[in-house]
Here is the input.
Amino acid sequence: MAENKPAYTIADKLPIVATPDVKVTLMTYAPGQEVPWHSHTTVTDSTFCLAGDVELAFRDPEEAVLLKPGDFRQVPPGRTHRVRCLGPDPCKVLLVQGVGAYDFKPA
Here is the structure.
């Protein structure tokens, strides 16, 4: 697995599944925390909001989507994006990444 260690801090990351082709992670964000602008070469991110208000923002073209509990959105390979907890409460996200080798390319 070609995993780059991203340089960001969030409240908690709990790996649920980690294979060479698929990652599933439960992520908890404090208000204002974010995964900064980045993209992936081959994996699709499927972001499921479990709690809180999550902003999923994109570039090329510019777009921002508000995810509330029960919502999800996919990010295709190569699309630059950012995930941010809007607050005022913590956010929980189930992130499914695959199928393919994981990488984290900062923008």
